[in-house]
Amino acid sequence: MSHIIHRDLRRVPPVAVSAAGITVTDRAGRTYLDASGGAAVSSLGHAHPEVLAAMHAQIDRNAYAHTAFFTCDAAEELAARLAAEAPGDLDHVYLVSGGSEAMETALKLARQYWLEAGQPRRRTFLARRQSYHGNTLGALAVGGNEWRRQPFAPLLMDVPRVAPCYEYRDRADGQSTEAYTAALLRELEQAILAAGPENLIGFVAETVVGATAGAVPPTPGYFRGVRRLCDQYGLLLILDEVMCGIGRTGTLYAFEQDGVLPDLVVLGKGLGAGYQPIGAVLARAHIVQRLRDGSGAFQHGHTYMGHPVAAAAALAVQQVIQRDCLLGAVTARGTAFRRMLRDAFGNHPHVGDIRGRGLLIGLELVAERAGKTPFAPEQRLHAIIKGEAMARGLMIYPMGGTIDGRRGDHILLAPPFITTEAELAEITSRLADTLTSSLTSSLA
Ligand code: PLP
């Protein structure tokens, strides 16, 4: 009997007792290859000696001092580094304890920005369907994951949503990628006009969609078009890089590959790489300047913001990524991994699409390829896949059922940046066995 309220109230998961490199070991002595980095978290693998040493040193020096009284070197250094490596004038950093907290922070910062600009009517966000921005009430409200939102819908602010950029599902036969992108941007413009630009705070989107659709990158030019519309109608652009940021796609920030500069960037997961709970918001200079010139304070705060040990861990993660040239490694290994997956599943009757950027990769599963017909949610394919994968010592992140009224199952793969090609081949082989047995029992 466990006293923890686990995710699944009817089943206690295996007890993890140790973890090193890309492997996690449970109390029964079984080992698991971490092919999803948890949920795209463990970018450096487990027990990285330099991150552990940085945390130990920080604990010995100063484990905690409340930010109402002090700042600390680790947090200052981390913020300076994130700002220096971010493009443009994304010069300011707000440090919190995770992705949802960071999203709440970005939403409030954006609202206060407009308040202090003398535009209090701006109180609505625009967001996208099939998106996930966190599980707290503000983050759920801008998210587009209906099964997560539905029980709490009466508690959520109203947020109009537009289509995500999801070429595999939504580009019509015969339609070019350019025409599809232009149609999405027209839909966004219509939504802005319908809501009234004077009522809008900003547009919220994941640069590369993570768990709700399975590593879906934007089409070329999509975010440049979004930025243009945000500029034209005076909306802030808030990009959620909790899953796709901090190197996961081969650049430190995924939006660098889309040629845009957002006003606010939301970070989590890979920032602490699983060593400490930490999230952050990067803000452009004009946002912070307005608050500085206005009330002089951001009306927000959390007890554990800017935590010294979390900041020290995240700083060490940044140092390792740079010193070991891991961004280049992500690009190279991502390409190799996608090639292996295409070789293994490119002609698979139930793998409709293999996509992603860097080491954030998705496989979309279909009952029938030509029509892209999804599996029925009652088959609970994603749940079967998770069980079969764990039985083969493989951690992957399948999602499925019905998300925002759309059916579909996909598998998210996000191995640590240090995963070798031999390990990627082993992951591919275990995944093949997993799929075969899952589909056999699901189709039986
Ligand atoms: N945003 C995105 C894109 C995410 O994938 C997640 C978590 O999966 C979050 C926000 C929320 O982060 P957290 O679970 O750390 O609160």
TrEMBL record:
Annotated keywords:
Aminotransferase, Pyridoxal phosphate, Transferase
- Which InterPro entries did the record assign? Aminotrans_3 (IPR005814), Aminotrans_3_PPA_site (IPR049704), PyrdxlP-dep_Trfase (IPR015424), PyrdxlP-dep_Trfase_major (IPR015421), PyrdxlP-dep_Trfase_small (IPR015422)
Q: Does the keyword Transferase apply?
A: yes
List the cofactors: pyridoxal 5'-phosphate
Pfam families recorded for this chain? Aminotran_3
Is Endoplasmic reticulum given among the entry's keywords?
no
Q: Name one GO molecular function term.
A: transaminase activity
The UniProt family comment states: Belongs to the class-III pyridoxal-phosphate-dependent aminotransferase family.
Quote the PANTHER family the UniProt record gives.
AMINOTRANSFERASE (PTHR43094), AMINOTRANSFERASE CLASS-III (PTHR43094:SF1)
Write down what this protein is called.
Aspartate aminotransferase family protein
**What organism, scientifically named, is this protein from?**
Duganella lactea
